[in-house]
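Researcher: Next sequence.
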Amino acid sequence: MATELKVLRDKIDEVDKSILSLITKRLALVAEVGEVKSQYGIPIYDPKRESEMLALRRSEAELAGISPNVIEDILRRLMRESYQNENDKGFKKVYTGQGSIVIIGGNGQMGRLFSRLFLLSGYNVKTLGSKTMHQAAEVIADAAAVIVTVPINKTLDIIKQLPPLPKECILTDFTSVKQLPLQAMLNQHDGPVVGLHPMFGPDVPNLAKQIIVYCDGRESEKYQWLIEQMRIWGANLYPIAASEHDKCMSFIQALRHFTSFTYGVNLQKEQANLEQLVALSSPIYRLELMMVGRLFAQDAQLYADIIMSSSENIELIKRYYECFGQMVKLLEQGDKDGFIENFNQVTKWFGEYAQRFIKESQSLLKLANDNRP
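Model: Next structure:
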């Protein structure tokens, strides 16, 4: 038996080596694609091409007797690597005028990420920080765009400290709230203004498929080159009014982060055994626990600022607290019919999104299970 296994495993090893060779060839071709895209200013992420290619490969896999999901999983992982390789080749510079990109907070993690992207696109990048703000007038004098990416609690003060900007210079920010910073920028600068919110952290390997929200301030035609530059980097740009953005962020950030925070606090107070929770967790609970643990691996000040950034956030959380109490009463009263009625009402409200989310979550659950030690 041992001899037979060795022979078979040796053959598998040879096949694996062939796979590695093919992957190397594929990545080399991707590198060439990246050079062409860079030359002509084509975004690194092409959703139509990706969708068509995956559909074709799934069909071919099925004809070959292979699970379409297997080939899609493999290709999606390769594409993530491919986007990184294309990212390293640089990007076409959209802006044809003179002037530098000034990033206030450029030494922070998000500032460094975007500094790198602008440099890869051929821009002259300058940075300002708390120790160099006294040089702002000199640094900003030739700016084509000024980006404010500092903690939420400092954003408004930094905007108000800005010296006069060149007339055609774009003033923008990366803050996760938009109404107040946008108004502050409009008050400070008479030229083009746009509010930006990158919906990702600074640890992303590239911007392929990442979402950047933008809220119009003034003279949209003059900041379009910046929007287009970010599209070339691979980002999906989503326009929305500042007021609507902040309403959405109350749910996406403030309420979500607060519930994770509270759940973590409760785990600590209950002295739950994390080792046992991880060992016994289903893939879905493991993902949920990972999201809670991820929160507490980051900056407490950041999340306090996000959650407490507006009175609207606090009111939303208070309404959630009241709703939570009402659902607890159902349990205390043993009201199973009431529980089921509420459950079914929410199911109806989610509509087709419920089934869509089941499908989308399946790949995440498989990945969580694959990564178990």
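Model: The first strand starts at residue 100 and ends at 104. Residues 41 and 92 are 5 Å apart (CA to CA).
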